Amino acid sequence: MNAETPAMEVRNLYKQFQIGKRGIFSKEEFVRAVDGVSLSIGHGETLALVGESGCGKSTLALTLMGLEKPTQGSILFEGKDPVTDKEYHFKEWCRNIQMVFQDPYESLNPLMTIGDTVAEPLQVHGLTKNKPERDERVIRALEDAGLKPAVNFLNRLPHELSGGQRQRVVIAGALVLEPRVILADEPVSMLDVSIRAEILNLLKDLSRDKGISILYITHDLGTAAYFADRIAVMYLGRIVELGAMLDVLNNPKHPYTQALLSVVPVPNPRLRRKRIILAGDPPNAIKIPTGCRFHPRCPIAVQRCKEIDPQLVELGGKHEAACLLLN
Fold first, then answer.
1. 17-34 pLDDT per residue, tens
2. Are β-strands 213-218 and 181-185 bridged in parallel, bridged antiparallel, or unpaired?
3. Which CATH class is domain 8-228?
């Protein structure tokens, strides 16, 4: 495998949901949840995907995981497309790409012990020859997830653990398969503030020590800035800004990114930005506005923003943004 080949690459990805007709003579309508997304994640890299609720972040993650079938476009894992590569089994895709969901309690079977929960993926994929080998991998995964000593947790049930411990069990269930990529969908939003830093530090350590690539999905730019290498800003199904974390934080180019950053709490009052409050709610994903999809809420929009749909353009280095006013 070429070292320059990304761990995961998305090319012009679309995901639409058909919702039927509103009347006898009307046309079929579709929710354009993911609308032409292209991005890549390097080996051992953490990419933060940020945006408002409803912008398509979770749908993108479910599509990357294989839980939703893309309408159009391709998803490559280490240069291989599981749809077109007949030698690449989809089960191998599922083993190498694991997902951590938002609510740890909903992710766990309340009737299964922690040991059985973490061991189940090994049984499904047939990766261990006997019970001692399976137990060894389960204990290692639990301890890698920060649950030490692991033997104290094997026979406990999810309701006997705290929220942070449950999320660590979910992470252990992903780690036990030794994946190359983890898709973390709002993994700390259901946790107490005091626990969030611990889980973020755990993900950061896993990326650094084990070379796991992480797609961190969130609406919170504060947590994204804490440990991500790059950031992709998503609006109404499309990436509107993409770049190195510090480049985007220090010099955001797209008006939407500027608005998101303006409301992030900053301890030093001298460093606070002037708040930009966007008017109105995000447009309907069924009837996306013509031209720039952000123009109905953009505080600096001009007439041509209503007519021309901007694409991502390079602004120097690897910083890109999609805004007509940058030209």
1. 988 766 666 678 889 999
2. parallel
3. alpha beta
